[in-house]
Amino acid sequence: MGQGSNVVVMATAECTPRRWALPSNARHSVAGYTLACLVFLPGASSLGAQKPVDSTATLKFISPATVPLRAAGTAEVRAAPDGTVTGTVLKTGAVIPLARERGWVRVRMEGWVRESDLLPVDSTLRIAISAADLRADPLGSKGKLVRWKVEILALQRADALRRDLVEGEPYLLARGPIGENAMLYLALPPALVDEARAITPLTVVQITARVRNGRSAPTNVPVLDVETLTLP
Question: How far apart are CA 95 and CA 23, in angstroms?
Fold first, then answer.
């Protein structure tokens, strides 16, 4: 189901032909989600089937078990039946049921959110860690994931003197995180080189990066492997 679409057609091998339409304003109610997520909603009391469209149109098979549903009111989204509440579905929202168990429905929702509003699902992520923390404990900080705003100074290629970078490896010379005047080497994967090349020097960007070495030789500058690079 894509943003802006008002018809959902799902194919299975076990049902009669039907097509189902979403409300014209459904795209607004699912705009708070990104990628596919699996959640649980209360069963029949909170969800209702969408209005069917003309069945004489070109049809695909739709299983009654996977007919799109909407919330009868505002429905709580839970990580598991009787589990932690992770969000809500508005009355205008639509979901796809995946499974049913003891009065609960496992559902899928799709939509879009700003990348800057998201964090990686990674237990090693550290928000408050500083560059000074990396230098103070280079072994303990290795492999940790950080999310920082940094000031980009230049795109460079590593020379033989920077021992924790591969010679010729592209990296961003940066200063940060913001509020800390520390130099950083931000190693770039091939997929981000063109994006990094377009960044004007002294631009502040938000990065998610994994610590390669908190105190590299010979300069003691932290080296991090960039995973995401976003203009705030």
Answer: 12
Asked if 15 and 67 touch (Cβ cutoff 8 Å), the reply is no
Strands 170-175 and 145-157: antiparallel
pTM across the whole model: 0.52
Q: 202 burial class (0-12, 13-18, 19+ CB within 10 angstroms)?
A: exposed
- Phi and psi at 73, nearest 5°, equal -140, -140
* Burial degree of 179 (CB within 10 A; 0-12, 13-18, 19+): exposed
Comparing 19-23, 118-122, 152-156, 177-181, the range with the smallest average pLDDT is 19-23
Q: What is the pLDDT of residue 120?
A: 64
Domains observed in the chain: 7-113 (no CATH), 116-230 (2.40.50.140)
3-class DSSP state of 28: helix
Distance of CA 216 to the CA centre of its chain: 30
Strand, coil or helix: 216: coil
Q: Name the range with the highest mean pLDDT among 55-64, 103-112, 183-192.
A: 183-192
Q: Report the side by side order of strands in the sheet with 75-78.
A: 47-49, 69-71, 94-101, 104-109, 37-42, 75-78, 85-89
